[in-house]
Specification:
By secondary structure, the protein is mostly helical. The protein is 51% helix and 9% strand.
């Protein structure tokens, strides 16, 4: 073998040793734990020692006998060409591993929130990881999930990730419980229903739920109900009930702010508008009904008629064994003596009866002009209004019996 080949092999040896040494120092390429790295380091140290012997020995071999097998300190020495090939292969494997599995930015210290939306496919999640720079290669991440038996185990939510994590660490993070959880609050729920959703999502105790219902959402007179805005939230798993209440109030303030001027122009106090919006939200079969119901309720208020709205009685009654909003019974109207019972008391209830969405708020400001004073929904949830009580009774006979 010529001197050029020997130099090439020597360089290959050096590159391999340096790469392996750096790997063991940083743990950047292998997903081994410390114990495994110590074992591998011991093996590499032994290899370094034997390679030193090989290089020293081959300098004393005659060129015409270099293909002979020799034994040094108990190790059989293969031809230098075979060693070089082995080292080049090892180097290639290490480089390939680095390009596919290692951390994209090993020196990064920045932690970011990686979000997984509900119903996102695993392929979509992996593509997003690659596009946002959290992994080097999608195939490598798929392989990591397969080895860990974690396919289709990624939950929706928010995950705290850094680009200094290798593919194995990212897989571990994403198949653990998310650091932030999605919470969907539908329109028209009362705060106790919201509390039940939060308790289920964050594993609250009964004491936590009681604090939500009676402390955190009862700290301001105007914030007893109606301001816990219905929306989709991504909430840290460790956030407490008071912070969640403030988060929802802040979202309400953000959404409601653009309507304040319109309430002022129409001489409607915002709390009055919110109370009416909550009634509309509960009474409507859909957003298409809301402007008409708003027009009818405004008409009754202007004539100082009792609103006689079932939803207000449901709110006063509270939870039954079938839920919070089951249909009222005739005795509920007569027996429930509450300022929320609009069959007994004129005007709006003292506070909102639910947490309305934007459509109900807009309906308060933009009601349908109508002469109707009564309405009902048929079995298909179609609304029918009437100008007189006699017409209303006829509609009851026609659509509800």
């Amino acid at each position: 073998m010529g001197s050029g080949c020997k130099v090439g092999v020597g360089v290959g040896i050096l590159i391999t040793v340096v790469l392996i040494g750096k790997t063991l120092e940083t743990g950047g390429l292998f997903p081994y734990r410390l114990k495994n790295r110590i074992i591998v380091k011991t093996i590499i140290d032994e290899i370094r020692e034997r390679l030193t012997i090989v290089v020293s020995y081959q300098n004393h071999l005659r060129s015409d006998k270099i293909d002979q097998m020799k034994l040094i300190n108990g190790f059989r020495i293969a031809p230098i060409l075979l060693i070089g090939l082995l080292l080049v292969t090892t180097t290639g494997c290490l480089l390939t591993y680095f390009m596919l599995f290692s951390a994209p930015q090993p020196q990064s210290k920045k932690e970011e929130v990686f979000t997984v939306a509900a119903k996102t496919t695993e392929t979509g999640i992996i593509d997003k990881l690659k596009n946002q720079g959290f992994i080097r290669n999608a195939w490598a991440f798929n392989l990591a999930l397969a080895i860990k038996d974690k396919h289709n185990k990624i939950e929706p939510g928010g995950y705290y990730l850094s680009k200094n994590l290798n593919v194995w660490q990212v897989a571990d993070k994403l198949t653990s419980s998310p650091g932030m959880k999605w919470v969907v609050i539908p329109e028209g729920l009362r705060k106790e229903e919201i509390g039940e959703i939060l308790a289920k999502t964050f594993n609250w105790s009964n004491d936590d739920l009681d604090k939500w219902n009676n402390t955190y959402t009862a700290m301001k007179f105007d914030y007893l109900e109606g301001v816990y805005f219905p929306d989709t939230y991504l909430i840290p798993a460790k956030e407490n009930g008071l912070d969640i209440a403030n988060r929802m109030i802040n979202r309400f303030n953000e959404k409601f702010a653009s309507y304040l001027d319109q309430f002022v122009k129409q001489n409607i106090i915002w709390t009055t508008g919110l109370r009416l919006a909550s009634v509309i939200q509960r009474e409507a079969a859909g957003k298409e009904d809301m402007p008409l119901i708003a027009g009818i309720l405004w008409n009754r208020l202007s004539k100082e008629m009792k609103l006689e709205v079932d939803a207000t009685v449901q709110y006063a009654r509270g939870k039954t064994d079938k839920g919070w909003w089951t249909p009222i019974k005739p005795e509920n109207i007569t027996e429930i003596d509450s300022p929320y019972n609009t069959y007994k008391y004129k005007g709006l209830p003292p506070h909102p009866i639910a947490n309305p969405g934007i459509d109900a708020i807009e309906a308060v400001l933009n009601p349908t002009e109508t002469n109707c004073l009564y309405y009902l929904h048929d079995s298909h949830r179609q609304i029918h209004c009437s100008k007189t009580y006699e017409e209303h009774k006829a509609n009851i006979e026609k659509y509800l019996k």
